[in-house]
Amino acid sequence: MEHPMKGHNDCSTETLIHQLQCNYCVAEYIGLTTETFRQRMNSHHFDSNDYNPEKPVALILTHAIALELHNPSPIVAMLPSLAKLLVATYNDETVNVDMDVNIGSYKEAVNVYREWEKSLVCLAQYYDRVLMSVSDEEKDLKFGSNMQTDMLHYFLMSLQYGCNHIYQSMPRLLSIYLDYGTRFADIAKKNKGSRVQEVAAMKGYLDKMSNLMDNYMQRLPPYMFLTAFSQIISRICHPLPDVYSRVKMLIVKLILAFPQQCMWMFIASWKSSFPLLSKRSHEILQDPLLKQARLNKFISDFNRLADKFIELINTPVDESVTSTTVSDVVRGLPLLFQTNFSKIMIPVQQLRSIMLPSSEDGKNLHNPFPRSMVYIVGMDEEVTILASLQKPRRFGFRGSDGKLHLMMGKPKDDLRKDFRIMEFHSIINKYLQKDPESRQRGLRICTYSVVPLNEECGIVEWVPNLIGLRPLMLEMYKDRKILVTGRELKKVACAVSDPVTKKKKVFLEFLLPKHPPVLADWFRQTFPDPYSWFCARTAYNRTTAVMSIVGYIVGLGDRHGENILIDCTTGDAIHVDFNCLFNKGATFDWPERVPFRLTHNMVDAMGPMGVEGTFRRTCEITLRMMRTQQDALMSVLRPFVYDPSASWGHSVRVGHVEPTNELAVKNIREIELRIQGMMQTKNKSFSLSLSVEGQTNALIQEATSVDNLCQMYIGWGAYL
């Protein structure tokens, strides 16, 4: 929160409320000094250096405001609430008091100053932690229902006063409301004519929740709900008509406010092969509010364009064809833009990323997207067929900015998981940007736009200047005339049932000697001057480390040499193909045994220190950030449980209407344990929680272990 200072204030000013941040331990101090601020600083410095060397010295003044006794500012009024919140948090973490006392402490922090987002979120999260210790049956009784109603209310209230915690509040409040409705529908269906009082009581609580949702859907600006649009879409098959009507109302409201961005996200549900999902998507788009002349034409044109794109991507081509034209594949597609066609935004990352307001001023009028949109005005005729089994094809949109925007159409590939993971990576980037150590190093995950068109195809933003790790290294081996052919590899490849000793011998005595490290040489050749080489190597180390940790947490597998790409202009490591999630790789015929890809070539390219230095430190910073933001990150991941697009496998159970999955619940729990520092042992159980440094070290050892690498499938390329 920012507050303008009145008058002139400097280090000679007395009676200052101050916030100090220490240079050494990054601790913050908030207090009121009655002496001059200079005396306060000198006194602290003297005490720390001469009498108590362990006491940190606060050297950086981050904020200082004058105390306004006659007209207290919001930040002054907030201080008592902050003090009470610190007490409540301390008692919570140390388990000093029982639940009722701690709830009272959190409520005191809220009641002292009701316009502070953080205190409201903390109270709701404490309720959430209490609720997790309650059995499933008790959650729907009076105690649990009351608590869930209060949680929903406090999360919604918090969003009135800011959006610093929106990725914790919004996904969780939607889950509370929608899950309670699902459980009520289950109980009401199973107990027709019995347990009448219990069903009536649940109906009363659900009505209260629905009224809260109605109220705050009017109060809160639409972009706040847009941050969870994917989650909202995934629940349009809700079994309860009252809840579904509110989901529908919310989607209609968002399409009215942001038609360009919403339709690119909504199209996969509209074109879905899941009958109820497709039916309800059509119902939503037939809502009277969307029948305005211009908007109705936009939706109709968008539908026509989506059908043409699906045809362009899925139309078979001959094996020998490497290029064709748009007109040859879909005759009517170029003609669309020659008529009075609606303006449709090009789906690139820059135009789809939500930017939250940086301050409370103008929060309700904030526009989360760039003011200048780029629209599709035509198609480039050239279509390049890429050399891959599914025959993906590259084509280009001509934009209203005069530029050609390249895209890749992927047939026979469900991109809905990729889209959700890209959303998750964007949220990871926001928290990396907030963390001081991460921000100082510019840590991030390289993201790009993904648009699923249905369950079988989609569009991916083309990122230029990329080369796959495998093609890169094979080309280097070919230039050195030491390339090992596929036939030679097949001759020495072990069977999955072969003993580890044989696999290890083949790996150490044939595969590694035939494939010496060359990636470091590629960096030196591609970035010949010292400065560009150092920047590229640093970028490679950091992006590899960030993605290694994030990939490990979400159980990302199938990291063979064609799913990791290197940017030839910056050295960034970019990952693609996120279909193998939540430790799915461990269930393969050749189970994956490493947490992430860290082969000898990748380590050699990191420099003389290898994994020590930049790589290890970046891993630790990323892991520490994820532990700090565990609540927010899990709030984003948990909705996967109810997302029919997640395609969890053959164990999906379709109940009355809405698909759910027990395996998903197990996977989400394992993600929580990994974030908390628990490592899986050989007997598949979890160890005690490790420190950030200990967990990082254990992961690096697992990823570089010869015993693990030699047991990987030959196509994964552990020898590269």
Automatic annotation (TrEMBL):
Annotated InterPro entries: DDR_Repair_Kinase, FATC_dom, HEAT_ATR, Kinase-like_dom_sf, PI3/4_kinase_cat_dom, PI3/4_kinase_cat_sf, PI3/4_kinase_CS, PIK-rel_kinase_FAT
PROSITE patterns according to UniProt: FAT (PS51189), FATC (PS51190), PI3_4_KINASE_2 (PS00916), PI3_4_KINASE_3 (PS50290)
Domain FAT, first and last residues per copy: 1-272
Chain ranges passing through the membrane: none
Pfam families: FAT, FATC, HEAT_ATR, PI3_PI4_kinase
UniProt record, GO biological process: DNA damage checkpoint signaling; DNA repair; telomere maintenance
Class of enzymatic activity (EC top level): transferase
Top-level taxon of origin: Eukaryota
Domain PI3K/PI4K catalytic: 379-690
Residue intervals of the FATC domain: 688-720
GO cellular component, one term: chromosome
Location(s), subcellular: Nucleus
GO molecular function: ATP binding; protein serine/threonine kinase activity
Family, as annotated: Belongs to the PI3/PI4-kinase family. ATM subfamily.
Protein name, as recorded: Serine/threonine-protein kinase ATR
Native source organism of the sequence: Timema genevievae
